[in-house]
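Appendix C reproduces, verbatim, an entry submitted by the partner laboratory led by Prof. M.T., so that reviewers can inspect both the input and the predicted structure.
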Amino acid sequence: MADIKEREASRKFQATGDRDYMKEFTEGRDAPVCESCGFTIRRQPDHGTAADGSEIDQYCTVCYREGAFVHDATDIPDFLTKATPDLVKHWGGSVGKTKLTLKKQLPKLPRWQ
């Protein structure tokens, strides 16, 4: 009986899974965050682009392309109205939850300060 308990206890602390999986799991934790919408920019196609087509880390592709903002919003309510459908389409989720999240985080982002 004691042997079984010892084996079960030792299994709890054994590493399972491979290093490649863990590398993929932790990828994006230090990824840049869009300064316009607050979404994490994890993949290469999610980066916004400068006028010359080069990738930038400050904004995501939903908010900033070819050196200009996609949505010509002047304030947060305007941005919520114009950008939420595109953000939901690109990042997923529901319109309601996305709007609620944006309302909380937009005032903290550089574009809206």
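The first strand starts at residue 47 and ends at 49. Additional entries are available on request from the coordinating office.
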